[in-house]
Automatic annotation (TrEMBL):
The keyword Protease does not apply. Belongs to the class-V pyridoxal-phosphate-dependent aminotransferase family. SerC subfamily. It comes from Cellulomonas wangleii. It holds the Pfam family Aminotran_5. Residues 143-330 form the Aminotransferase class V domain. Pathway: Amino-acid biosynthesis; L-serine biosynthesis; L-serine from 3-phospho-D-glycerate: step 2/3. Its cofactor is pyridoxal 5'-phosphate. This is phosphoserine transaminase. The keyword Amino-acid biosynthesis applies. It comes from the Bacteria. GO terms for molecular function: O-phospho-L-serine:2-oxoglutarate aminotransferase activity.
Length: 372
């Protein structure tokens, strides 16, 4: 394998294609350096950092065209922490989940194991396909991922018919900022900043409806014990003051704010969605045109624009291809480990240049030509 090389003129200008953490733009890093001695190492309770949090909240409200009454809420921890927050504070008696990959399965497991909730109703689909929530009597919260980072499947975001007062909790972690949606079809659209928003982890962010805020206040005001650090109501209260309960990673907030501003300046969510669609269109058409590759998601309508998965023929070992690419600075296109497929997985978030996706596929072609 060490003899396999890729000519420099084929390589992408930036070789980062991770599905999360994802590529951080140079301009974000420069902005972070510029505030290194003014914001980093200062109190998160004082005006400069609170102003930064306010900038993030206002930017997200604008980017997603937040409906009247919806609030941008943030808290310490990532989406995994938010599953616990939602289990404790947003599900009153029983949840229903759609599970079609690793991340939807984890949230379903959290509510199913909660001793104070009835067993969750779960509809499932095999990896590479999609399941959508269905109406179930007695369910007061429906949950599903907008995009499965593990498999590269995107799901529709719309309220479950006949759900009445039930909340819609949609995991936007890898979709948010990279594709369009109508936020009013959700009650909580939550995500973390290390994918389309090109930041570090350690935060959860959510667009929350008045119904969700009221639900949390009612549940937490009852006899259910909720730790303060996992309280949705506490997160709402602190967010309204442009702060978090515990000390946030200020560097993460700076990177996040810079990315949001950049996306708004370029044209907002519609621009970002068109950019990722351009990258994805190339990746999938390239895979379909090779006799040793194919998109893992068979239905084109379900193929993610932000995380592309491509199966390789048995004679083309993905581990060899990715190792050669990594030696040349093209990184993080390995498949999701638990999926166990001979596969490539490519992050195509807004920070990734579509021309670099073109260069990536040219590099893969070059490596495969030397292998077979």
């Amino acid at each position: 394998m060490s003899h396999l090389t890729i000519p420099a003129d084929l390589l992408p200008r930036d070789g980062r294609f991770g599905s999360g953490p994802s590529k951080v733009r140079r301009e974000q890093v420069d902005a972070l350096a510029a505030v290194g001695t003014t914001l980093l190492g200062t109190s998160h309770r004082q005006a400069p950092v609170r102003s930064l949090v306010g900038r993030v909240r206002a930017g997200l409200a604008a980017l997603f065209d937040a409906p009247d009454g919806y609030e941008v809420v943030l808290g310490n921890g990532g989406s995994t922490t938010f599953w616990d927050v939602a289990t404790l504070c947003l599900v009153q008696e029983r949840a229903a989940h759609a599970r079609f990959g690793e991340f939807g399965a984890k949230f379903a497991a959290a509510t199913t194991r909660a001793p104070f909730l009835a067993p969750s109703h779960v509809v499932s689909a095999p990896a590479g396909q999609v399941a959508v929530p269905e109406h179930v009597d007695g369910v007061d919260a429906y949950a599903w991922p907008h995009n499965e980072t593990s498999t590269g499947v995107i799901a529709p975001v719309r309220r479950v018919a006949g759900s009445r007062d039930a909340l819609m909790l949609v995991d936007g972690t890898s979709a948010a900022g990279g594709t369009t949606l109508d936020v009013s079809q959700t009650d909580v659209y939550y995500f973390a900043p290390q994918k389309s928003f090109a930041s570090d982890g350690g935060l959860w962010l959510a667009l929350a409806s008045p119904a969700a805020v009221e639900r949390a206040a009612r549940v937490e005001g009852g006899d259910r014990w909720v730790p303060e650090s996992l309280s949705f109501t506490t997160a709402v209260t602190n967010s309204r003051a442009d702060q978090t309960l515990n000390t946030p990673a200020v560097a993460t907030l700076v990177l996040l704010a810079e990315q949001i501003d950049w996306m708004l300046e370029q044209g907002g969510l519609a621009w970002a969605a068109q950019r990722t669609a351009t990258s994805a269109g190339h990746l999938y058409s390239w895979a379909e045109s090779r006799d040793w590759a194919a998109p893992f998601v068979a239905d084109p309508a379900l193929r993610s624009p932000v995380v592309g998965t491509v199966d390789l023929a048995p004679e083309v070992e993905a581990s060899t291809v990715t190792a050669v690419l990594r030696r040349h600075g093209v990184v993080d296109i390995e498949p999701y480990r638990k999926l166990g497929r001979n596969q490539l997985r490519v992050g195509m978030y807004p920070a990734v240049e579509p021309d670099d996706v073109l260069a990536l596929t040219a590099c893969i072609d070059h490596v495969v030509e030397q292998l077979v």
